Amino acid sequence: MTFMQIIDCKTERPDDLNRLMDTWVAQTVGKRTATHTLIGRDRDDAGHYLEIVEFPSYEEAMRNSQLPETSRIFDEIVALCGEPPTFTNLDVIRDEQLNKMNARVFFDLIASEGRLELLPDLFADDYFGHDPAGEGETVGIDALRAQVEGYRRGFDCQFTVGAQVAEGDEVATRWSWAGMHHGEFRGVAATGRECTMTGIAIFRFEDGKVKEAWWNWDNLSLYRQLGLVPEASPMRTQS
């Protein structure tokens, strides 16, 4: 179970506090068990700081606290504070990464099930999509709708999300889809062929909606499956 520790302290020397955190990060490379650390300042009390540290488990947190570097840095943090820091230990019982969940709505519902009415809920009106392997740039939610409709006219595709990584306001999704080519797609009449494709999409969220996206997909493989590009010839080796 994921474990989090909240360290509550007061100091008039925030620059020194940041310096100590930089030192601890540098000195514990390859040894620390913490996976994420965040420091926040109280907007109503400039000298009040909270540090939130995440670990894979309570046991890993205890291993981390036993590192000599951790003990040394902690003693220096105490010296910076006007009073001893307080600790709150939390077992994480629910962890919802909302941007990741929202990104899945596109693949699971909009693209796979054709729920186009959800587009305004997920994408900003001035959405901007980058797709160098496809149609270039997609500007605006209406252009995105037309793009999705074009794919769905050509294929009864079902998306599968392989993995997602979130950092800041961006979510990267590794995806694949499979479906029959049952309608015209980019000038190619229906072939009845079963096609597959893989790719990665990065969504940048702003105010809860996707403002910008970068698409990278295996268009060469898809075009070969549709007969638009000849299959690659096997390489010959010289004897």
Strand content: 35-45%
Low-confidence stretches: none
- Secondary structure: helix percent: 25-40%
Shape: elongated
CATH topology of the largest domain: Nuclear Transport Factor 2, Chain: A
Biggest sheet character: 6 strands, mixed
The secondary structure category is: alpha+beta
Structure description:
The protein folds into two domains: 3-91, 2-Layer Sandwich (Alpha-Beta Plaits); 98-225, Nuclear Transport Factor 2, Chain: A. The N and C termini lie far apart (58 Å). The strands form two sheets. It has a six-stranded mixed beta sheet. It has a four-stranded antiparallel beta sheet with strand order 2-3-1-4. The protein has helices spanning 14-27, 58-65, 68-80, 98-113, 119-122, 141-154, 219-225, and strands at 3-10, 36-41, 48-55, 86-91, 123-131, 136-139, 158-167, 170-180, 194-206, 209-217. It is elongated, with a radius of gyration of 25 Å. It is built from seven helices and ten strands. It is α+β, with helices and mostly antiparallel strands. 32% of the residues lie in helices and 35% in strands.
Question: What is the structure about, briefly put?
Answer:
With 239 residues, the protein is an alpha+beta fold.
How does the SSE layout of this entry go?
Blueprint (H helix, E strand, L loop, with lengths): L2 E8 L3 H14 L8 E6 L6 E8 L2 H8 L2 H13 L5 E6 L6 H16 L5 H4 E9 L4 E4 L1 H14 L3 E10 L2 E11 L13 E13 L2 E9 L1 H7 L14
Parallel strand pairs: 5-10
Antiparallel strand pairs: 1-3, 1-4, 2-3, 5-6, 7-8, 8-9, 9-10
